[in-house]
Write a structure and sequence with these properties.
It is a single chain. This protein has about 160 residues and is mostly beta strands. It has one domain: Metal Binding Protein, Guanine Nucleotide Exchange Factor, Chain A, CATH 2.170.150. It is about 5% helix and about 30% strand. The protein has 1 helix and 10 strands, in the order E-E-E-H-E-E-E-E-E-E-E. The strands form 2 sheets. It has a 7-stranded mixed β-sheet with strand order 6-7-8-9-4-3-10. Strands 1-2-5 form a 3-stranded antiparallel β-sheet, with no helix packed on it. Strand 8 and strand 9 form a beta hairpin. The chain is globular. It starts with 7 loop residues before the first strand and ends in a 46-residue tail after the last strand. The C terminus is likely disordered.
Length: about 160
């Protein structure tokens, strides 16, 4: 007998925006880039990934704000409370990264790596057993083998969000 999939749900701090992930999240990790530090007000953020067509806003569409946080990525957030919700990067057009802290059950995922570790403040506790990368991982989906920086030459507009 196979287990039945149960969608993963989440939302912002004030409850205005709600979403559902229609697949099991994967590729969960810490990002310590300066943008994640600014957006979160901390030493980084944990993201988990799903296919773009499996991420559904179920309530609060009008409250979802967005901005281009880098040359290659667009982030969403709740306009009422400011909770960061997602980042969509151009080199992974069919996937979206969701902030793990906004999941109703953040225990549903566990980080498996650190990216932009060189930008992390010294006071950020790193889990010593997780791989650390100066920038992106050398095997990042959507980038050439060994490439660790996203290129702005792949930008094709504001993206699907």
């Amino acid at each position: 007998m196979t287990e039945q999939f149960v969608p993963v749900e989440g939302g912002c701090a004030c409850g205005s925006v709600r979403y559902r992930l229609d697949e099991t999240p994967y590729d969960t990790g810490w990002c310590h880039c300066r943008v994640c530090q600014h957006v979160s007000g901390s030493g980084g953020m944990v993201f988990t990934t799903v296919h773009l067509d499996r991420y559904r806003i179920t309530a609060g569409h009008a409250e979802v704000g967005r901005f281009a946080s880098t040359e290659f990525g667009t982030r969403t957030f709740c306009r009422k409370c400011g909770s960061p919700l997602t980042i969509h990067v151009r080199h992974q057009p069919d996937e979206i990264d969701v902030t793990a802290g906004t999941l109703d059950d953040p225990e549903a995922v566990a980080p498996g790596f650190h990216i932009y570790a060189a930008e992390a403040p010294s006071w950020v506790p790193m889990m010593a057993f997780l791989p650390r990368h100066k920038a992106l991982r050398p095997n990042t989906r959507g980038l050439e083998e060994g490439q660790t920086e996203a290129s702005h030459d792949r930008i094709d507009g504001d993206g699907p969000l």
